[in-house]
From TrEMBL:
SUPFAM superfamilies: Hcp1-like. This is Type VI secretion system tube protein Hcp. InterPro entries: Hcp1-lik_sf, T6SS_Hcp, T6SS_Hcp1_domain. It comes from the Bacteria. Gene3D superfamilies: Hcp1-like (2.30.110.20).
Amino acid sequence: MTGIFIYNLNHSLTWGQHAKHHPITFKKPVDKSSPLLGIAMSENEVLDGIFDIYRTNQSGIQELYYTIKVIEATIVDLAVYHPHSITHAGAQPQETISLRYKSITWTHHIAGTSAYSIWDDRVY
């Protein structure tokens, strides 16, 4: 499955006795990928994913500036929201998906920097 349009993406790391990873969560429209993501969760399918993030540069051109890559991810939460058909008639159905992953890589293409981390719940 390639090319899923997402509305937004959230991810956080916190610090306790070590770096604590939290699932990547993103919102997307209900689309042709929705049933496939549902079965992937049902069957605990292991996925690799790339989130390419674009921005508009000073010349007004869309440019790829940041990438988040997850390896050996599984869907840990999938929630579908269908808006009220009368009070929110113009709103489209959307779903929120959370992924737990084995490893993550962040790449800032413009600056040429990148980093890598492994989701490891061990205390050091």
